[in-house]
Amino acid sequence: MGEFVSMVWAYGGICVYGMGLVGKFGVYGMGLWGICVYEVAAAASLCFHVHKRSAYAGLRGKKKSTGHCLIASLTPFHSVILKTRGRLSSNFFYGSSNKPRTSCAYHQNSKRHSTSLMGAERYPPPWFSVAPMMEWTDNHYRTLARLISKKAWLYTEMLAAETIVYQTGNLDRFLAYGPEQHPIVLQIGGNKLENLAKATQLATPYGYDEINFNCGCPSPKVAGHGCFGVRLMLDPKFVAEAMSVIAANTNVPVTVKCRIGVDDNDSYNELCDFIYEVSSKSPTRHFIIHSRKALLNGISPADNRKIPPLKYEYYYALLRDFPDLQFTINGGITSIEEVNAARTEGAHGVMLGRAAYGNPWQILGLVDSAVYGAPLLSITRRQVLEQYQVYGDSVLRMYGPRPTVREVVRPLLGLFHAEPRNVLWKRKVDAAFRHCTTIKSLFEETLGEIPDGVLDAPITEVPSGSTDTFIKAKSMLPPPYTVNEEELLYA
């Protein structure tokens, strides 16, 4: 539904929290889970406290202590969507972002992430981000992602504002996360100003670094029956109102993720009209641009990622025509080489989706060094799997029968992308799903298929070379945009 982390070893410990979504009329799927695992000596360094602990034996015989599960998280396959959009002008929705918020604790004696410095200023700029992807970038994937990259910006799956509003007694199930997941962006969707205001108020105490509004999802459940997602691009006045309402109820930056057009409303000038109206009538200063238009004629979201042609020239023209705004390019970029090529031609930031999911080692493993200039990590895939096993076995069947071994292992299936015996390993894993009851037993049964030279090889440098895709795009820019205030006034 949304074009929609994590585990970081710090002071010898990890902390992972899940997120999820519960619909107004019930639970819509499962699959995100939370657990806190840390060494006793590291407890003082964390931003929250857990007082019940039990011992477990680490992978290498070290004694660690495990906090009791703090939250469950339920991953939605879809959420409750209200079919009508109310437009309310009351100042009730434009609350002060500085007023105290009602909070719901992770745990009886825990606190949300709060520091004197809020938002994105604490972290590297969003030169690279992983797109929000429903049913894919769940907490299991984000755990793997953060083990590999410490600097990539990570997005939640889209959460419908209605879901947050109607589940005030269960907010931690889908809004809580551990402090090591920063930088993290909450993506919300919706079409009712009242619910967007309330949802933002409820989410603000959780300390997300940005809040992103979904104006790009082409799913029939969202843009069709739901009347939000990419369909909102046809109503820039409402989007501007929504962004003002969201911004008034949070103290972090607000951003928009959108496409370059919808159906026949796909000219560059129409895209600029949308950007101009939203940015001039709201505090929005950052747009993530999926460089394809959306077709709302019933085609699938997968086809909407392939059939409409990419028009990177629209993105680069936005950089020219709106020099005071920030734009991240998204769509069709599948390698770190292309990421750097886009940035060389002036892109402020680059967002990858399925490429980062399907090939995490070759993509995320190079982000910190090739994009941010940090030293190349010396971590190996064997070490990543050892750490992931601790997480995985901690969360298995935490709530009834789920998450299952299959659900926890699924994000790992791209870890050996294009490596020798990868296909054989995945076949063996698929067979092991039928009888393995722990992540450890599955690894013991299947990892023998992967050569030691692959398991123990560190991340290698990004291959040299360049791509002229973005150079060509800059040579095809549409004419400069000219604001027609009169047309916008009566649009």
UniProtKB/TrEMBL annotation:
The protein's superkingdom reads: Eukaryota
Q: Which InterPro entries match?
A: Aldolase_TIM, DUS-like_FMN-bd, DusA
Q: Which residues form the DUS-like FMN-binding domain?
A: 130-437
Q: Please give the NCBIfam families that the UniProt record associates with this protein.
A: PRK11815.1
Source organism per UniProt: Datura stramonium
Q: Sorted alphabetically, which Gene3D superfamilies does this protein's record hold? A: 1.20.120.1460, Aldolase class I
This protein's name: DUS-like FMN-binding domain-containing protein
